[in-house]
Amino acid sequence: MPHERELDEAAVRQWQARDPGGFDRLVAQFAPEVTRLAHRLLGWPHDPADVEDTVQDVFLTLLRNPAAFDGRSAFRTWLTRVTVNHCLSLRRRWRSRQRRLWDWLARQHHTAGESPEVAAQRGEQADGVWAALARLRPADRAILVLHYLEHLPVADVAVALGIAKNAAEARLSRARARLREQLPAEQEHVN
Q1: Is 86 helix (H, G, I), strand (E, B) or coil?
Q2: Higher pLDDT, 154 or 142
Q3: With 50 as the cut, is the pLDDT of residue 179 above it?
Q4: Which residue of 54, 62, 81, 182 has the fewest CB atoms within a 10 Å radius of its CB?
Q5: Are residues 139 and 76 in the same domain?
Q6: Of 62 and 106, the one with more pLDDT
Q7: What residues contact 87, with CB distance under 8 A and at least 6 apart?
Q8: What is the pLDDT of residues 92-103, one digit of tens each?
């Protein structure tokens, strides 16, 4: 059996020559490492699908652009950087969604003459809202995200989830109630 370093270099050369066998060897060899790194970088309790999606995105990057690896570093180092970049991008999307959710909640209960302190508190409370959302079952989280963060009407949410509109309305109502249960008392603003 060839030394692991030789196997890396041979697989990298094949991959860069757009030989599918080289790409397959790289996936077989590095998928466990990329998966472990993505799991660790994504941190807080996350949906396992996020890790799987990140791993797929990393390897799609490789598949689409073998010329991106220029050999200035070891392949493993470069692949680590690609993985880190994908994880950071996903976390930025999460933070953006978190801010949009908190903004929506604040708009629902905004009162005229809100003090600057209350407005500033919104940013701090967003972490609690996102953490509460993360603790929900994936089905509850999905319907809330689709409706409130992706701004889909209930009819479109129903189509996206493959359920009837009245079932989507009922699930949305139950998901809001479950989110309220997860929120600290001062954050229970989900209508």
Answers
A1: helix
A2: 154
A3: yes
A4: 81
A5: no
A6: 62
A7: 37, 38, 41, 42, 54
A8: 776 666 666 666
Rounded to 5°, angle at Cα 84 from 79 and 88: 150
Q: How far apart are CA 25 and CA 28, in angstroms?
A: 5
- Based on the fold, state whether residues 107 and 72 are members of the same structural domain: no
pLDDT reading at 124 higher than 70 = no
- 114 lies in the same domain as 127: yes
Tokens of 121: 């508190």
> What's the pLDDT score for residue 136?
84
* First CA to last CA distance, the chain: 62
In terms of domains, do 9 and 80 share one?
yes
Residue 15: count of CB within 10 angstroms of its CB: 22
In this predicted model, which residue has the larger pLDDT, 56 or 112?
56
Residues 82 and 111 in one domain: no
27 with 78, same domain: the answer is yes
Domain that holds residue 29: 4-92
Residues 19 and 66 in one domain: yes
Of 66, 92, 118, which residue sits at a domain end? Answer: 92
Instruction: For the chain, give percent helix, strand, coil, nearest 5.
Output: 80, 0, 20
pLDDT computed for residue 2 by the predictor: 45
| The amino acid at 61 | T
DSSP assignment string, 53-68 = HHHHHHHHHHHH-GGG
**Is pLDDT at 90 greater than 90 in this prediction?**
no
